[in-house]
Amino acid sequence: MKRKIELLAPGGDIDSIKAAIIAGADAVYCGLDRFNARNRAVNISFEDLRSILRLAHKNNCQVFLTLNILILENEIPALVKLLNKLANTSIDGIIVQDLGLLYILSNYFKNLKIHASTQLTTHNEDQIEFLSKLNVSRVNLSRELNTDEIKHLGLIGKKNNISTEIFVHGSNCISFSGLCYLSSLHSGNSGNRGRCSQPCRDRYLKTEAGKNYPLNLKDNSAYFNLKEIVDAGVKSIKIEGRIKKSDYVYTVVNAWKNQINSLFDVNELLTDNSDLYKVFNRDFSNAFLIGDISKNMFIDNPRDHSIQHLSEINRFYSDSEMENAATVLYNEKDEIKENVEKQINDLSISKTPLQINISGQNGSALIICVISSENSFTLQSKTKLILKPSHALTAEILLTKLKAINETEFYIENLNLQNLQPNLFISFHELTSLKKRILSILNDSKEILEPITLPVLKNYPNLNTPAKLSVLINSEKDLNICNETDANIYFQLPACLKNGISDYENLFAENKKLIPWFPSVIIGKDYDSAVQLLSSVKPSCIVTNNLGIAYQAYRNGIKWIAGPYLNIINSYSLINLKENLNCVGAFISNEINQNQIKSLNKPDEFKLFYSIYHPIVLMTSRQCLFHQVTGCEKHRLDDDCMIHCSRSATITNLKNQTLIIEKSPGNYHKIYNAENYLNTDIITDIPNMFSEFLIDLCDVKTETIIATDKSEIVKYLQNIINGQSNIDKKLNQIISKTTKIQYKKGI
Predict the structure, then answer these.
(1) How far apart are CA 597 and CA 588, in angstroms?
(2) Domain residues for 249?
(3) CA dist list (Å): 614 to 155, 253, 337, 422, 698
């Protein structure tokens, strides 16, 4: 086989990055101490980054930096400062989730290559079309996709100059990435901010199916599927594990490198994956990749499976056999650690010392000779030195002007002025020019870019038009609400439409007031059906939580509103959607608090929306969540499950927090918070900001108690929006057991 595939390794700290390089990684991804989705990793400092880049590039290894979290408005200045520094490094790519950061990079930092994070939940072709419009060069596809779906998206990517990347090893998330709010709501640690506390790995009260860890998936490993992955056109295979230690990284990368070499050198796959079981694992599954989503993906224990695996393959029957095997394994682990540590210590990221010799005579050019262990070069000024004792060049002045060199992977060890005639002067402008030329040469002759300052954003408050009420429904039995209110009525569509397009076409034809509301995840043929419905209905406006549908609306001239699950939390995301997709308005994420919302700047002729009442979706999963909870007669999911399954259950963790598991026909499995969200404070807390306040009356049964019918709820909330604050107390009586903790905590 001719085409090689990139092996992309995790680097949670300097030792792990070195371990990945030693093991043969073609690229590593790592994060700084801010703006990355693995805050629990040690991460690296910017001071170390240049040296890491130098070490990696000397070993034919690329480095991608993770800036893959949602960016708050008050963080934009610090982020831009960082991007200005990164623009003058040799970084090979920036991994991004936030739509605002995508806009900033594609418009102001065109020299930085953009990679779309898995947190963007990319799973259909028009999402890739949109990312191409923003100059994205690579996309990490959703982990839940199978090889046929990956291959199709790879072809779309190729047409748009976007390469594809997939996770092939490491922890599996049970939720679609970017759409999990469980950690955010229950512990204040948002997964979209890199602080996930992994509550899906927690112990719960024993379920009806007899499980203690009902949300705990086995680790992902596609070790024996490399040929299918290559055939699917994937450019890069990615190993998860930025909170893992260097011995883990070395072992896994080495095993995968051997597999790649075997396939491309002798066209055969290795059949032994025992090395992967010698480091932390929860057992392995490739079920998403092969499209066999079954109960075998779960494991009722989140701890290391290494010893258990030894027992299973060797059929140990006694405790002594297990103890002996464990001793052997632990000794082997220690040997691996010692071996990796020894090799790591031989790789230095210490800065390279420079000897700088400065010479010159009155009336001649200033000559600067830069010498290192690897290279040397000489520069001279364009203007002549002159005698000027009052402003004479001194070592102190020169070190001050050249101090930027010490912020690279080099440092000035010695500055020699012995051959510089005393009392000479040259302009600071000339010294600055020489400094830039030195920095450029040290930076592989890349031009040193001037810092970019973003224009000041102007806010356009919603002063003249009072806020309206809007209502979301998902059942035809609630259509009567259309005739009882002037509110906008949105109708929530399922993720699977292929068996019901004609019904929905008739629904929207007969109810002109209904506005289609598209879900976050729409994959494969279901996406084709959603596009078909959009084309046949030709609505005047839609709400969508899926950027693929947004791109379709943009291409077809349909007004569209960004839904609350597009995770909008900063002004540049709003600008991005307006300028690049002709978006007319957007819901602000319910993850952020009052002050974080207040800081946003609304673009001109753009509407802001906020959901003040809704069941809180904590996660959306392609897996069946009932296997481990109530049990299911089916071993694996099929098309019929997606289309027809309708059931619900609850699980309770050891903190006595209850989660609602719900599956409705045509939709993926979801987990809801026990209490619905209710926040009318925002109406008066932040006046003149929002055009609409939404209430979600979809049929989802939680522990929130509603003592009236939906029509009455609409009337009460309409009156509150109209300024009748005296009925707030009554509202809390008819809708009880609710929360607005996100509005207080934020992210």
Answers:
(1) 8
(2) 6-172+219-271
(3) 39, 44, 50, 76, 8
* Tens-digit pLDDT profile for residues 116-131: 999 999 999 999 999 9
Same domain, 498 and 596: yes
* Res. 2: pLDDT tops 70: no
d(CA 721, CA 683) in angstroms, rounded, equals 7
**Buried residues in 392-417 as b, exposed as e (16+ CB within 10 A):** ebeeeebeeebeebeebbbebeeeeb
**Residues 426 and 493 occupy one common structural domain:** no
Cα 577 to Cα 504, 563, 567, 594: the distances in Å are 27, 12, 12, 23
Element (H, E) at 285: strand 284-285
Reported residue count of the chain is 747
**Least confident piece of the model among 214-228, 320-334, 495-509:** 320-334
Q: Determine the Cα–Cα distance for residues 369 and 415; give it in Å rounded to an integer.
A: 10
How is residue 359 written in tokens? Answer: 């010479």
What's 78's domain CATH number? 3.20.20.70
Torsion 319-320-325-327 (CA) sign: positive
The amino acid that residue 651 corresponds to is I
State the DSSP string of 568-621. --SHHHHHHHHHHH---EEEPPTTS-HHHHHT--PPTT-EEEEEEEE--EEEEE
| Across 461-483, average pLDDT | 93
Name which of 54, 35, 716 is nearest 411 in CA terms: 54
pLDDT, position 42: 64
Direct distance between the N- and C-terminal alpha carbons of the chain, in angstroms, rounded to an integer: 48
Q: CA–CA separation, 608 vs 586, rounded Å?
A: 5
**Residue 93 is assigned to a structural domain of this protein:** yes
Residue entry with tokens 């693995």: 38
DSSP tag of 564: G
- 663 — phi, psi (to 5°)? -130, 120
| CA 58-60-65 angle, 5° bins | 90
Contact between 585 and 562 under an 8 Å Cβ cutoff? The reply is yes
Whether 111 is in a domain gets the answer yes
Band (pLDDT 50/70/90 cuts) for residue 38 is: low
CA–CA dist 66, 71 (Å, integer): 13
What is the value of pTM for the model shown? 0.94
β 114-116/93-96 pair status? parallel
- The more confident residue out of 42 and 617 is 617
* 207 in a structural domain: no
> How many domains does the chain contain in total?
3
CA 297 – CA 307 distance, rounded (Å): 19
Which pLDDT band holds residue 419 (cuts at 50, 70, 90)? Answer: very high
